[in-house]
Write a structure and sequence with these properties.
With 211 residues, the protein is of the alpha/beta class. It is built from five helices and eight strands. Strands 1-2-4-3-5-6-7-8 form an eight-stranded mixed β-sheet, sandwiched between helices. A hairpin with a 2-residue loop joins β1 and β2. The protein is globular, with a radius of gyration of 15 Å. It starts with 5 loop residues before the first strand and ends with a helix. The relative contact order is 0.15.
């Protein structure tokens, strides 16, 4: 993401996991944010522009930010596993780089689906302070239902004109939970031309959560 980005290789269940970590300017980090990328079979990587926008927003708000490539992407070993192994990858990254302390979970598209499942798994045992889901792939995968007490820590953003994941699918997932969804007018799946707006929405949410 910048010249200060630290490159790390972890050992996961399917082999090496390629990771990049960014530190906030202030040495005192608020916690660690782990961010998941879009679908590996459709070109998704940790260098995706929406993923990098999420990372910049978290870093700007004082979080140490961790992005990683799912199995079979970049230098990460293994093969795509339709979400099961990818959830294992994300939990592995959390376990090794954020084993304790404040945690944030975020993701974009397929990564938002995986992030929701990771947040569900970790909620009872960890101090999950923030959950940010962008372009959540609710039309294609079974996105996890988070407990009601998690909702005030969640930000769900979707583009009004998303032609990859229809807004209606996200609303169908959110409606039974009474979970608010922030809709970007005219926004597409990749938020072309609207990444500064997306970053500002995430920053606003993160700063509102600072006591």
């Amino acid at each position: 993401m910048n010249s200060q980005t630290e490159k790390i290789s972890l050992q996961g269940a399917a082999g090496a996991i390629e990771v990049q970590r960014d530190l906030p300017a202030d040495a005192a980090s608020r916690g660690i944010a782990v961010i998941a990328h879009p679908h590996p079979l459709f070109g998704g990587t940790m260098d995706n522009k929406v993923v990098q926008t999420l990372a910049r927003a978290f870093v700007a708000c004082g979080w140490t930010t961790v992005r990683f490539n799912f199995r079979g992407v970049g230098a990460s070993e293994g093969v795509h596993d339709e979400g099961r192994g990818e959830l294992e990858d994300m939990l592995n990254v959390v376990g090794q780089l954020a084993p304790e302390g404040p945690l944030a979970i975020a993701g974009f598209s397929f990564g938002a689906f995986v992030a929701s499942c990771a947040a569900e798994k970790l909620w009872a045992a960890r101090d999950v302070q923030q959950i940010v889901l962008i372009g959540t792939a609710a039309s294609r995968f079974s996105v996890a239902t988070l407990p009601a007490e998690a909702h005030e820590r969640m930000l769900v953003v979707h583009g009004e004109a998303d032609d990859t994941v229809p807004l209606s699918a996200v609303m169908d997932w959110a409606r039974p939970q009474s979970l608010p969804v922030t809709v970007v007018p005219g926004g597409g799946h990749f938020f072309h031309g609207q990444l500064p707006l997306l970053k500002s929405l995430v920053v606003r949410h993160l700063r509102a959560g600072i006591a």
